[in-house]
């Protein structure tokens, strides 16, 4: 296998690997190969738009369309090999690999092409409805006391040499294999990865195996896709099928799902807020800007302070401790690094101002996440609690009145606004949220910028504003268009102008 490098401040899109087709097809069950297996392959793709000369295009069936419709486009872009489920006599000058189901060979072919990239890395897979991103960053921070650690998740991907924004929590398997290969080239020893239920269901982690799989929590979410909570849970538990031999399982003892998994997997490492878990916290003191508690691991105990607020932040930290400690990081190193846990973009992110008000931007767009964040902020708010939020279009509609109920229960004023309405009518989305609001005053302001401005206008000294739902995101999806919008930037600019 040859490796040609074209680097500019790390790894860029011009870095290419190449391999003979016969090696890419190693251990792949084929019905027929029409053409030469000796051709040099430069890439493996399931999206025709990113195909370049010398690469393979796998024509798999998608949720909305079939890859067969894009074969000609792939050939025009330079594909030298097409993988499909039936021989096509009209395709000329390309090798055809016929398989029973193209979607079932994507992972193996990509793994072969990038030389099984997950195997030499210490792989950590984290799943759960809430907290994946924070746990990922906390785990990376703890592991890097010993070795360079890559990260793949909702906000960004870091390969050791380069950081770039993520388009999906869990990338497609072709992109994932390339990222893991680049981590190896970049000197990473570990990879911390958020694994979504969609990613597991859509086989995005096929041929990827983890040294640690962590299960955080599960709550009402993604029922537009999974239909029932049982299906959602089953999708997440597919992560167990992707652990390496003797792989470690980490579960939360604070929720029924974790306790259920512990019964199924007695050797699982548990974390939680109560004694009885393998790793737990006690003597908790919650402050406005930090949390202090005794960290308890085995027979060791030490008071630590983390620069994050709320019991949910402590739970996230304990999850990271369970993962890191299981991988050999010492209790002393973990306790020492607790005080320097990094901030996580758009997660309980404070917008500094001279107005005497607390402004928080948070990604909370799920029922449990919103309730947890609002309750935490309510406990430290002397004045009124003002919330700015909406719900995404073309997504789980059942949660909309539930989000409204949370605002009604814990807040004093609600401002309802757009949050990625996509192609759905924003008025209908807001009407469904309003069903959960019965006793507090609220306003409807569809333009998110104006909604944030109104909240700042209403706030007085001692009040707290929570701008929820978008977090780190920098765009609004409205009627098929993506419009630049950043809650963090808008809030900073507005308070700076006052």
Describe the structure in brief.
This protein has 498 residues and is α/β, with parallel strands linked by helices. The chain folds into 3 domains: 2-113, MurE/MurF, N-terminal domain (Udp-n-acetylmuramoylalanyl-d-glutamate--2,6- Diaminopimelate Ligase, Chain: A, domain 1, 3-Layer(aba) Sandwich), CATH 3.40.1390; 122-340, UDP-N-acetylmuramoyl-L-alanine:D-glutamate ligase (3-Layer(aba) Sandwich); 349-497, Mur ligase, C-terminal domain (Protein-Tyrosine Phosphatase, Chain A, Alpha-Beta Complex). The model is unreliable at 1-14 (pLDDT under 50).
> Going by CATH, what is the homologous superfamily of the largest domain?
Mur-like, catalytic domain
Strand percentage: 15-25%
CATH topology of the largest domain, what is it called? UDP-N-acetylmuramoyl-L-alanine:D-glutamate ligase
The first-to-last residue Cα distance is: 60 Å
- Class derived from helix and strand content: alpha/beta
What CATH architecture of the largest domain would you give? 3-Layer(aba) Sandwich
Total strand segments: 27
Strand order of the largest sheet: 12-11-10-13-9-14-15-16-17-18-19
Classified by CATH, the class of the largest domain is Alpha Beta
Count of discrete structural domains:
3
- Average residue pLDDT: 93
The share of residues in helices is 25-40%
Rg of Cα set? 24 Å
**What's the total helix number?**
16
Sum up the overall morphology in one term.
Answer: globular
């Amino acid at each position: 296998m040859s490796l040609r490098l074209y680097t500019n401040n790390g790894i860029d899109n011009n870095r290419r690997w190449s391999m003979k087709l016969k090696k890419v097809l190693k251990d792949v069950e084929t019905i027929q190969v029409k053409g030469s297996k000796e051709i040099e392959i430069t890439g493996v793709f399931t999206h025709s738009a990113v195909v370049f000369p010398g690469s393979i295009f796998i024509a798999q069936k998608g949720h909305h369309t079939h890859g067969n419709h894009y074969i000609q486009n792939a050939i025009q872009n330079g594909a030298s090999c097409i993988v499909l489920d039936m021989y096509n006599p009209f395709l000329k000058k390309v090798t055809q690999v016929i398989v029973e189901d193209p979607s079932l060979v994507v992972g193996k072919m990509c793994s072969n092409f990038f030389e099984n990239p997950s195997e030499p890395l210490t792989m950590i897979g984290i799943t759960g409805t809430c907290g994946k991103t924070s746990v990922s960053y906390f785990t990376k921070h703890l592991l890097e006391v010993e070795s360079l650690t890559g990260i793949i998740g909702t906000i960004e991907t870091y390969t050791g040499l380069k950081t770039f924004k993520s388009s999906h929590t869990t990338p497609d398997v072709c992109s994932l294999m390339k990222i893991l290969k680049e981590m190896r080239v970049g000197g990473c020893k570990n990879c911390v990865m958020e694994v979504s239920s969609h990613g597991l269901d859509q086989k995005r982690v096929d041929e990827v195996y983890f040294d640690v799989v962590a299960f955080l929590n599960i709550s009402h979410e993604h029922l537009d896709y999974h239909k029932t909570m049982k299906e959602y849970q089953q999708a997440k538990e597919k992560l167990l099928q992707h652990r390496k031999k003797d792989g470690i399982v980490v579960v939360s003892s604070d929720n029924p799902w974790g306790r259920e998994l512990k019964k199924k997997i007695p050797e699982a490492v548990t974390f939680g807020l109560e004694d009885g878990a393998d790793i737990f916290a006690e003597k908790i003191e919650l402050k406005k800007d930090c949390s202090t508690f005794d960290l308890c691991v085995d027979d060791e105990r030490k008071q630590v302070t983390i620069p994050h607020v709320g019991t949910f932040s402590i739970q996230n930290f304990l999850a990271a401790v369970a993962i890191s400690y299981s991988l050999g990081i010492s209790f002393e190193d973990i306790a020492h690094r607790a005080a320097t846990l990094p901030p996580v973009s758009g997660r309980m992110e404070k917008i500094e101002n001279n107005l005497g008000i607390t402004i928080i931007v948070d990604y909370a767009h799920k029922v449990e996440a919103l309730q947890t964040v609002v309750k935490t902020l309510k406990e430290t708010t002397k004045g009124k609690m003002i919330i700015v939020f909406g719900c995404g279009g073309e997504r789980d509609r059942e949660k909309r009145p539930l989000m409204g109920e949370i605002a009604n229960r814990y807040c004093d004023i609600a401002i309802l606004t757009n949050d990625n309405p996509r192609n759905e009518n924003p008025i209908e989305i807001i009407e469904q949220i309003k069903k959960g609001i019965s006793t507090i005053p609220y306003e409807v302001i569809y333009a998110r910028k104006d909604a944030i401005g109104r909240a700042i206008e209403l706030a007085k000294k001692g009040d707290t504003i929570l701008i929820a739902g978008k977090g780190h995101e920098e765009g609004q999806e409205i009627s098929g268009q993506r419009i630049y919008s950043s809650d963090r930037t808008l809030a900073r600019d507005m308070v700076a102008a006052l």
